[in-house]
Task: structure prediction
Amino acid sequence: MSSRPLLLFLVICGGLIAREQYEIHGNVTDAETGEPLIGVNIVLAGTFTGTATDARGEFTLTLSPGSHTLTVTMIGYKSKRIPIMLPESGPVVRLNIALERDIITTPQIVVTASRSAQDIMDLPLSVSTLSPREIFSKNAITLNEVLTTQAGVSMVHNQLNIRGASGFTLGAGSRSLLLLDGIPIMGSAAGNITWDIVPASEIERVEIVKSGGSAMFGSGAMGGVVNIITRNAPARPETRFRSIVGFYSQPGYDQWKWRSRRGMFSMYEVTHSRPLGAHGFWIRAQRSVTDGYTQLGWKRALSFTGKIKLNFGNRSNASVYANLLSDEGGAISQWKSPADPFEAPEISKHDQSSGTKLNLNTVWNTVFNRQIILRVKGALYRVQWQNQGTNTDGSLEQKLLGETQIEVPLGNDHHVTAGYTLQQAYINADIFGAHTVQTRALYGLIRLKRGRFSTSLGGRYESFLVDGAPFDHQTVPQIAFNYRPFSWLSLRASYGGGFRSPTVAELYSRSRLNVFKVEPNPNLRSETSRSGEIGYSLRWAGKSSLLSFIQWEGALFRNAFVDLIEPRPDRFGIIHFENVTRADISGWETGITGGFFRRLLTVQLAYTYLNPVEINAAGTILDTLSYRYRHYFTQTVNVYLKAFTFSLDSRYSSRIEKTELFDEHPLTHRDRRVPIHVWNGSVAYRRGNLDIMLRGENLFQYYYVELERNLGKERNFSLSVMWNY
Result:
């Protein structure tokens, strides 16, 4: 369908209801200190018309005469709604706005669940958020090191799992979708995630949708969505230097020592941000090097990242984000033997891979008559890699994405979002040949609110073509409810469909993985799911000196899968990706964060229970799904004493009950699996523009495996220094 009639209609509507404009000037300050606040968002309620404060905390907003309500928001401060009346003529209105600090630590306004801004307490789906402070507190170079602090989120050998959806699929497909500023950044060939392309130091917030997200985001989102929102340039010029240097401990047993020195790792980056009139940009260069704690764990990476934000008055803006990553490292597969777990097999000691990844995202927003916003997105994702050693496979992948989205607020209580997405990918790899994949999708969502009750109704139609021929098409619904009996409590329930088309790697891979061979299975069918949950959110700010605030989230959930794709080796060690007839993952999760003694102490706890099983058509349990943790628990304690912050965090995962590659031998206990309990700690110091942190991970040098014959991370210590000026 051509988009010209729609655009013409929007332009005509804009001309018909245009009215005389009225200018508002104002400033926003901190209610406690009186200092001007930079980057505060001022938006006309029920519309997308808005602006932000400049370096002096001032703003200008052009509106029509009449009665309006302004919404004023900024991360770290309580939002405020300000009613105003603009007469047909009169003196210029001047607003002086003071915002109070919000002691709730995580962002309260999110955009991922419904593709538009919404208070997190009004959401009908389970969503958690990560702030820049939480990311920095883990001394993280890549984001995957931090995500596992959230209830329902875990990793198996760096493969993202939301409520156990993915397990481990040999890097050939993920059921949890990764977005950068709302645009997918996962490969089309294998559907996997490259964490190094995510700029962990330039993140404004991370939003994790733990209910299935296929209705809004399509294939790959059936297990959930992680959306990384990058920051915009501040209103003042800023240059930041950051470095992390560290080392791994020597193995705890003399027999395991394989080198005379300790393994080292380091990361250096510099970021410069600057406003350009009404616009702004930031650029970042990063170099990271690690010897690894295993023989093939070494890696070197160089990346350049930048973002420019262009503002054209109150009604239009655009952003361009780009990242170029070049890296090389050892091609890890499995250890040499249980007696030499840090070394690689003799035949693969020199295996390595190298490659480049280019990610380019553009977003253009324009508002028509305060009531309609048109958002156009475009993206290029290009990946090239080459193996050397026993495996000389290589691949080139290029993916183009375009999306048009329209948002229409129907008053203050109702909202409509709809869009069309087209994605085209070309893949040429030694292990599965040359293929093209195309997806087309239409989606829509309507939010209705009446009093304390709100409803969300949505759906998506998506079709897939492989090598120009129709492969599959799916239609999925979503319905969700939210009831907010009190300002500090909300209850929610949702039900929806999900799907994932098999990746090219799952369909056509023909390769060797050490003693295993991977053979193609072009007869795979798309996975489908039905998921439901009920949950609650409690966010309360206390006024006593003992309890400063509390955030408490919880949910019961069940995901029923049909034709789930899992890697299955036969008795000859030949792996095919096969459709499991049916599977069911049910469980519950809870996460609580509290601040005590005027926030001198904060405690964060998260627990997830899973029951992941394979079933037949009658619902009889046949087996346990592989690579899932039945119990998963994390905790973080922070103590703030003036300029110092002391942190202690831990992670516990129950023993993985089933694997696919190597099962535990009943007599010798070879490939034995154990529970995981790892403790980490840090001390941070902040003075002015200087931040210093000393961090230790796996403090008690606990040895474990997540993927058979691959040891988990060895104990390590790091020192980071960050300086802003």
